[in-house]
């Protein structure tokens, strides 16, 4: 992720000095300027800044009218917030296997669709885009809403578009581990004005004071408080100017290393849904044991099965269908019995067992990282 440094400090200081810390203060415009600039960068007509990626997912689902009795398809490999967000609006997550690209498998999407499925949340994990052409085709065929979880792929291109601006709605995260980093933050993106108005109303308690629904006479409804401050907007404008150059460096570095690693007879380079613009790099070993061995070599960051917080088998509240109050449990309102078992997405477990992330090493010269890649490819 881009560094947070002097420019963010200066921008935050100017926001504080202005005296307009609330984004809806008269005279405040830093957050709205950021939203416009982000929309222009990724090709989204409407952008709403919120306080986290998790909040963005909940607001997007609420904007789309997802609720009790609805089923939402989510991948078995993602941060738990993707599966928790449907629960927050009264819907239930249905887990879908990933394929070797580390993203949701379109074929398993088809297999998991029921008469109660209302939405798909494809997740662009570790900067790897989903097969959005296939997903959008399936959604159109079955009348489903697509809400992209692009929290781990802010600014990443997919063919001639950008992740997060392809589906009906998209979500970004600006958590400290993401491509844009202000510690915590998020955004909802859409090209649908009604969805935008509903998301904006939901993120501000359905406030009549600001008349968020006026343009389409959309009735206000009770929502949450997911607003950001002008300090957030100021820092995000700085981060936005950093993310595109960073991703270009990643794309160039990835191309060099992938070409070297593809010559290995010990493993294969993870397939990608848009190789020409890829910024992420991982390798797929033939066995779990080989993957464990690879994690001990220089240049290999980690084995994905060891990143337990992103794996469905560790989502205890979801697997046990447990909410803060038994009468607020969406599984009790579902139109069919939905159960989860630790082995229900065996293909996902197998792929994560055998996949290792390769370090791009942007802080080091390309020749040094190429040397490390050559040693990794020849080690066997």
Please render the helix and strand layout as text.
Blueprint: H1 6-18, H2 30-42, E1 46-50, H3 53-63, E2 71-75, H4 81-88, E3 92-96, H5 106-112, E4 117-120, H6 132-142, E5 145-149, E6 157-158, E7 161-162, E8 169-173, E9 186-190, H7 193-202, H8 230-261, E10 268-269, E11 282-284, H9 288-294, E12 300-303, H10 316-319, H11 330-333, H12 346-354, E13 355-358, H13 366-378
Parallel strand pairs: 2-3, 2-4, 4-5, 5-8
Antiparallel strand pairs: 1-9, 6-7, 8-9, 10-11, 11-13, 12-13
The largest beta-sheet arranges its strands as 1-9-8-5-4-2-3
Mean pLDDT: 94
Give the SSE order as H and E letters. HHEHEHEHEHEEEEEHHEEHEHHHEH
Write down the CATH topology of the largest domain.
Answer: Aspartate Aminotransferase, domain 2
CATH architecture of the largest domain: 3-Layer(aba) Sandwich
Overview of this protein structure:
This protein is an alpha/beta fold and 380 residues long. The protein is 37% helix and 13% strand. The protein has helices at residues 6-18, 30-42, 53-63, 81-88, 106-112, 132-142, 193-202, 230-261, 288-294, 316-319, 330-333, 346-354, 366-378; strands at residues 46-50, 71-75, 92-96, 117-120, 145-149, 157-158, 161-162, 169-173, 186-190, 268-269, 282-284, 300-303, 355-358. The strands form 3 sheets. A 7-stranded mixed β-sheet has the order 1-9-8-5-4-2-3, sandwiched between helices. It has a 4-stranded antiparallel β-sheet with strand order 10-11-13-12. α6 (132-142) links the parallel β4 (117-120) and β5 (145-149). The longest helix is centred in the middle third of the chain and has 32 residues, at 230-261. The mean pLDDT is 94. InterPro entries: DegT/StrS_aminotransferase, PyrdxlP-dep_Trfase, PyrdxlP-dep_Trfase_major, PyrdxlP-dep_Trfase_small. Belongs to the DegT/DnrJ/EryC1 family.
């Amino acid at each position: 992720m881009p560094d947070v440094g002097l420019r963010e400090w200066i921008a935050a200081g100017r926001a504080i000095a202005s005296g307009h810390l609330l984004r809806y203060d008269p005279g405040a415009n830093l957050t709205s300027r950021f939203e416009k600039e982000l929309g222009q960068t990724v090709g989204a007509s409407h952008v709403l800044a919120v306080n986290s990626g998790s909040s963005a997912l909940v607001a997007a689902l609420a904007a789309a009218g997802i609720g009790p009795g609805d089923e939402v398809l989510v991948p078995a490999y993602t941060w738990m917030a993707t599966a928790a967000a449907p629960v927050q609006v009264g819907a239930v997550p249905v887990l879908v296997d990933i394929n070797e690209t580390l993203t949701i498998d379109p074929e398993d999407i088809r297999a998991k669709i029921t008469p109660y499925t209302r939405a798909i949340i494809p997740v662009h994990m570790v900067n790897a885009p989903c097969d959005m052409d296939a997903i959008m085709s399936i959604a159109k065929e079955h009348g489903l809403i697509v809400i992209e979880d692009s929290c781990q792929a802010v600014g990443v291109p997919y063919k001639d578009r950008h992740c997060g601006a392809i589906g009906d709605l998209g979500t970004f995260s600006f958590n400290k581990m993401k491509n844009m980093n202000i510690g915590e933050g998020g955004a909802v993106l859409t090209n649908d004005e009604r969805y935008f108005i509903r998301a904006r109303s939901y993120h501000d308690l359905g406030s009549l004071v600001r008349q968020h629904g006026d343009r389409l006479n959309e009735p206000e409804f009770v929502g949450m408080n997911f607003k950001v401050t002008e300090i957030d907007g100021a820092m995000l404008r700085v981060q936005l100017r950093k993310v595109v150059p960073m991703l270009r460096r990643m794309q160039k570095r990835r191309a060099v290393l992938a070409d070297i690693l593809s010559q290995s007879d010990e493993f294969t380079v993870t397939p990608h849904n848009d190789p020409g613009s890829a910024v992420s790099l991982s390798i797929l070993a033939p066995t779990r044991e080989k993957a464990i061995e690879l994690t001990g070599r220089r240049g290999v960051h980690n084995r994905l099965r060891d990143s337990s917080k992103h794996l469905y088998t560790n989502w205890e509240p979801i697997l046990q269908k447990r909410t803060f109050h038994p009468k607020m449990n969406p599984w009790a309102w579902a139109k069919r019995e939905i159960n989860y078992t630790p082995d229900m997405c065996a293909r996902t477990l197998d792929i994560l067992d055998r996949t290792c992330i390769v370090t791009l090493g942007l802080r080091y010269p390309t020749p040094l990282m190429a040397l490390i890649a050559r040693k990794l490819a020849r080690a066997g």
